[in-house]
Prior knowledge:
Layout: E1 5-6, H1 9-29, E2 35-41, H2 45-60, E3 64-70, H3 76-88, E4 94-97, H4 107-111, H5 125-132, H6 141-154, E5 161-165, H7 172-181, E6 185-189, H8 196-201, E7 205-208, E8 226-229, E9 233-237, E10 240-244, H9 249-253, E11 258-259, H10 266-285
Parallel strand pairs: 1-11, 2-3, 2-4, 5-6, 5-7, 7-8, 8-11
Antiparallel strand pairs: 9-10
Helix pairs in contact: 1-10, 2-10, 6-7, 6-10
Amino acid sequence: IGTAELIDGKAFAARIRGDVASGVARLKGQGIVPGLAVVLVGEDPASEVYVRNKGIQTREAGMNSWEHKLPAETTQDALMAKVADLNADPAVHGILVQLPLPGHLDADAVINAIAPGKDVDGFHVLNVGLLGTGQKSMVPCTPLGCLMMLRDRLGDLSGLNAVVVGRSNIVGKPMAQLLLGDSCTVTIAHSRTKDLAELCRRADILVAAVGRPRMIPGDWIKPGATVIDVGINRIEEDGRTRLVGDVDFDSAARVAGAITPVPGGVGPMTIACLLANTLTACCRANGLPEPE
Ligand code: NDP
């Protein structure tokens, strides 16, 4: 029985953050400071943690960071006005509205109000369309991080069978677009998919983005496959709270060729890619060459 190689997202993300920090330092030499504004509505505890971490890492990379905290009862008009202010502010190169928004707000309308060039999450319908047609866009951070790890491990992805489990707009769909762009044969699975186990067993690349703890066991995995576990699930086990992925790590690691751990896999890459997107947005806004 083989033992999978661990894909160290933490170390990879640290390298990306280092590259971003160098890029930021070069821009500062020209008098330009990249800036990221994050808008948080309400008091979702997980979102507060994410937003805090984003702020810390943004500042560590040498960029300006602003956190706009709005009360849960904020109106659609007030939120749209906040986005309009940030669109108009030349010091702000990236705008991120933390999702999910409270139920009374129309998230699509808010996201589509962000200036597409500042949409560092890549969720604006224009960026979605650009990605889908293979044009230069802002690429959503989580799938971008997954793609970077896959390219790093596998090199050329062309012709590989990729199965993406999950079809959300923020992970599953853009992940599938990126893999298609790298010439994988892509299947997107979801809650109505038949014979999911069989489908997964054909995957050279398996990306799990479901939100169900340890849903995918080792015997759904093709021997030697590369497994990217996007899931972050908080569970109670042995009297304590643990974070686990959508893949049953222990059984999967005996079959896969390589696998991302949770935590320490996709999670840190997501924030690193957010910083990279902010740097890219700043370069584009200033007509400067983009970092690779
Ligand atoms: P969503 O809830 O938006 O989407 C989940 C998807 O999983 C849906 O498409 C759903 O299908 C599908 N699904 C649900 N149950 C099953 C099932 N039994 N079999 C097959 N497919 C199923 O989640 P997100 O995409 O936003 O997030 C997915 C996971 O990734 C979560 O755990 C989230 O916390 C994590 N995440 C991690 C990030 C990171 O930085 N590492 C960033 C973003 C998310 P259907 O469409 O039919 O309902």
